[in-house]
């Protein structure tokens, strides 16, 4: 309890900062292809459902004091928890790379203003992007240098600047175009996105935080700080920044009479709206606040996998790997192509994991875990050879269901596959574990 130093404001600021960033803005720009009303509706629904799950996962950290990936040892087994740890490691390194890429794009605009270098996307613009990636990586190493304490400090400072920037951005957008124009705008038919596709994109984005919730909520000794502050903070950051992404992208499309989802990143839009030098600085800052959370969660997953590396060493490792991954879109495909493929992969594997570990704690174990058994060979979380094969089976079946449902237009185009698959994994895992316990 002596280490539980995070106040309500700290937890609230952490989760606002996690979502008040350039990645959330970019997500808003992507779902703008649905049109304003559909994008706003799916944003609210997906946010509320996803972050109710976040609040539940945060309660687990508050109740036990354990990290998110350590907690999965109870449902997947001591050795079986390697699966969710690998998923978390990959996804948070991926998110760190996404945010770094967008921030580095902003830096290429700064370098253009300062040194006359070409911006990224123009001939010779790759150099500015590459330098930006290296500079951002140095910022990220500094941001996680003191572990949880440095994350806490960054979120406290960053949240104030982010709020100022978003208000400024909102004023500029609505001076450029009217709200009526934004509401009535429609994307070209060949670029239009269905509501179901938007829900799946948003779910993949939102649910990533659910598997990191305990890494932060375990540092608070008050239940309300863990659950309510997490839910409200994450939703505020999501609604505000994704909403800005939606209206800024639509506003730019109206102004230029051209819609290109590849140019939905905040740097390009801020440049086209004439926001200038200071806007790029704040965009870069938001990457640091978000990646402080991403890298902390990735480092925690790596520590659970190796159980030999300290958290500090793990944080350095994942930051360096994320730097290397950030260069991928330059050589493979467009950033939007890589980004959407990444989101689809996250939604497919992450939903079932969340369904399994939440049902295990709240339904099967009645919110009671035996802490000493989390490291005990042949304890109650050892199962068979350290693996709960029922959890692995349910996860695999659920992933297959996701792939199948994505090819069923009635589901894929309306409500999406992600939340349906989470429900399937919850029911299937609960029933099979109950049946196994009765037979034992």
Automatic annotation (TrEMBL):
<keyword id="KW-1133">Transmembrane helix</keyword>
<feature type="transmembrane region" description="Helical">
    <location>
        <begin position="12"/>
        <end position="38"/>
    </location>
</feature>
<feature type="transmembrane region" description="Helical">
    <location>
        <begin position="274"/>
        <end position="293"/>
    </location>
</feature>
<keyword id="KW-0812">Transmembrane</keyword>
<feature type="transmembrane region" description="Helical">
    <location>
        <begin position="385"/>
        <end position="405"/>
    </location>
</feature>
<feature type="transmembrane region" description="Helical">
    <location>
        <begin position="82"/>
        <end position="104"/>
    </location>
</feature>
<comment type="similarity">
    <text>Belongs to the purine-cytosine permease (2.A.39) family.</text>
</comment>
<keyword id="KW-0813">Transport</keyword>
<feature type="transmembrane region" description="Helical">
    <location>
        <begin position="229"/>
        <end position="254"/>
    </location>
</feature>
<dbReference type="InterPro" id="IPR001248">
    <property type="entry name" value="Pur-cyt_permease"/>
</dbReference>
<dbReference type="GO" id="GO:0005886">
    <property type="term" value="C:plasma membrane"/>
</dbReference>
<keyword id="KW-0472">Membrane</keyword>
<feature type="transmembrane region" description="Helical">
    <location>
        <begin position="197"/>
        <end position="217"/>
    </location>
</feature>
<feature type="transmembrane region" description="Helical">
    <location>
        <begin position="157"/>
        <end position="177"/>
    </location>
</feature>
<feature type="transmembrane region" description="Helical">
    <location>
        <begin position="313"/>
        <end position="339"/>
    </location>
</feature>
<feature type="transmembrane region" description="Helical">
    <location>
        <begin position="345"/>
        <end position="364"/>
    </location>
</feature>
<dbReference type="InterPro" id="IPR026030">
    <property type="entry name" value="Pur-cyt_permease_Fcy2/21/22"/>
</dbReference>
<dbReference type="GO" id="GO:0015209">
    <property type="term" value="F:cytosine transmembrane transporter activity"/>
</dbReference>
<dbReference type="InterPro" id="IPR030191">
    <property type="entry name" value="CodB"/>
</dbReference>
<feature type="transmembrane region" description="Helical">
    <location>
        <begin position="411"/>
        <end position="432"/>
    </location>
</feature>
<feature type="transmembrane region" description="Helical">
    <location>
        <begin position="124"/>
        <end position="145"/>
    </location>
</feature>
<protein>
    <submittedName>
        <fullName>Cytosine permease</fullName>
    </submittedName>
</protein>
<feature type="transmembrane region" description="Helical">
    <location>
        <begin position="44"/>
        <end position="62"/>
    </location>
</feature>
<dbReference type="Pfam" id="PF02133">
    <property type="entry name" value="Transp_cyt_pur"/>
</dbReference>
């Amino acid at each position: 309890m002596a280490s539980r130093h995070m106040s309500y404001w700290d937890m609230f600021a952490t989760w606002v900062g996690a979502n008040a960033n350039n990645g959330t803005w970019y997500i808003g720009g992507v779902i703008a292809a649905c049109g304003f009303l559909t994008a706003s509706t799916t944003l609210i629904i997906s946010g509320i459902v996803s972050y109710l799950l976040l609040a539940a996962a945060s309660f687990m950290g508050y109740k036990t004091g354990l990290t998110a990936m350590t907690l999965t040892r109870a449902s997947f087994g001591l050795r079986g928890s390697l699966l969710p740890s690998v998923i978390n490691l990959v996804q948070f390194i991926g998110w760190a790379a996404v945010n770094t890429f967008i921030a580095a794009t902003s830096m290429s605009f700064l370098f253009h203003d300062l040194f006359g270098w070409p911006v990224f996307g123009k001939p010779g613009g790759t150099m500015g992007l590459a330098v930006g990636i290296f500079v951002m990586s140095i910022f990220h190493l500094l941001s996680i240098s003191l572990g949880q304490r440095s994350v806490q400090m960054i979120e406290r400072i960053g949240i104030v600047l982010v709020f100022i920037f978003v208000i400024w951005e909102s004023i500029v957008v609505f001076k450029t175009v009217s709200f009526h124009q934004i509401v009535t705008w429609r994307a070209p038919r060949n670029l239009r996105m269905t509501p179901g596709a938007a829900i799946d994109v948003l779910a993949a984005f939102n649910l990533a935080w659910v598997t990191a919730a305990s890494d932060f909520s375990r540092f608070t000794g008050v239940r309300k700080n863990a659950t309510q502050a997490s839910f409200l903070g994450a939703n505020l950051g999501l609604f505000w920044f994704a909403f800005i992404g939606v209206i800024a992208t639509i506003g730019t499309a109206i102004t230029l009479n051209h819609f290109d989802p590849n140019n939905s990143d905040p740097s390009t839009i801020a440049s086209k709206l004439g926001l200038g030098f200071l806007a790029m600085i704040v965009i870069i800052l938001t990457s640091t606040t978000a990646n402080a959370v991403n890298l902390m969660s990735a480092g925690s997953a790596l520590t659970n996998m190796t159980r030999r590396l300290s958290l500090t060493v793990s944080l350095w490792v994942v930051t360096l790997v994320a730097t290397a991954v950030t260069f991928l879109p330059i050589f493979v495909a467009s950033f939007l192509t890589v980004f959407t493929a990444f989101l689809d992969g996250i939604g497919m594997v992450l939903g079932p994991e969340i369904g399994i570990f939440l049902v295990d704690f709240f339904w099967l174990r009645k919110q009671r875990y035996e802490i000493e058994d989390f490291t005990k060979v042949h304890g109650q979380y050892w199962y068979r050879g350290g693996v709960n094969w029922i959890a692995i089976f349910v996860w695999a079946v659920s992933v297959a269901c996701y792939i199948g449902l994505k090819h069923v237009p009635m589901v894929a185009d309306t409500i999406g596959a992600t939340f349906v698959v989470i429900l399937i994994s919850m029911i299937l895992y609960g029933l099979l574990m109950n049946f196994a316990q009765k037979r034992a």
